[in-house]
Amino acid sequence: MNPRLNLEKTEPEAYKAMYALVKYMGHSTLSRTQLDLISIRASQLNGCAFCLDMHTREARQHGETEQRLYVLSAWRETTLFTPEEEALLALTEEVTFINHGVSDATYQRAVAVLGEQQVAQAIMMAVTINAWNRIAIATHLPLAA
């Protein structure tokens, strides 16, 4: 796959705005692990190789286990994730597949487990990584060496 335009060079102000959102999310009350799980799961669903490569590397650096990374796409079939992480993953999936909407059950469970502020932050993180996935896929960003 041949790379396409370099969005950072072509639209630097838009790119800076996207990075500002990422930086903001890094200061949220969501843990680094929670942010990584949202990024990886959305990237799996969107088929974004660039983001999967980057975020799984980062997750490992942040202490995530290989086992949890290997089974993340089948998280419902394991007991490796906390109730909070499960709520985040379900919410991430429904935000990513937004044409079906976020169900009342998923939303209510997330609020019950995480509270409104963290649900708001999780939605913003899911929206952010979905935007990055679309940028990476549309521009054919190559994997890092």
Elements, N to C (H/E): HHHHHHHH
Mean pLDDT: 96
For this structure, the CATH topology is: AhpD-like
Broad shape: globular
Pfam families: CMD
Protein name: Carboxymuconolactone decarboxylase family protein
InterPro entries: AhpD-like (IPR029032), AhpD_core (IPR004675), CMD-like (IPR003779)
Structural overview:
With about 140 residues, the protein is mainly α. It has a single domain, classed as AhpD-like (Up-down Bundle). Helices cover about 70% and strands about 0% of the residues. The protein has eight helices and no strands. Helix 3 packs antiparallel against helix 4, helix 3 packs parallel to helix 6 and helix 6 crosses helix 8. The chain is globular, with a radius of gyration of 15 Å. The two termini are about 15 Å apart.
Structure described in brief:
The protein has 145 residues and is mainly α. It is 70% helix and 0% strand. The protein has helices at 7-10, 12-26, 32-46, 49-61, 66-71, 83-96, 104-114, 116-139.
Kindly list the characteristics that best describe this protein:
AhpD-like, 8 helices, mainly alpha, 145 residues, AhpD_core
